[in-house]
Q: What sequence folds into this?
């Protein structure tokens, strides 16, 4: 969510795992940021769930130049 509105809502069938989470990010995050006119300079927030903090996900954010808000334990 952002003061300009919400990003795309995605229904998840079955159990959420790391592969589904990454697919959701790849298919929706940057498009939602564009739709909300956030540009490329925005901060993404997620909790410390292992599928969120996995090295592959954090590398994906880094390669896409997406700032991720640090979340306290």
A:
């Amino acid at each position: 969510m952002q003061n300009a509105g919400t990003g795309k809502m995605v229904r998840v069938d079955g159990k959420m795992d790391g592969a589904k989470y990454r697919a959701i990010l790849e298919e929706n995050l940057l498009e939602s940021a564009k739709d909300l006119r956030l540009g490329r300079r925005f901060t993404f927030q997620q909790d410390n769930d292992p599928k969120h903090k996995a090295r592959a996900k954090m590398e994906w954010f880094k390669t896409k130049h997406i700032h991720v808000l640090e979340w306290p334990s």
Summary: The chain has a mean pLDDT of 88. The two ends are 22 Å apart (CA to CA). The chain has three helices and two strands.
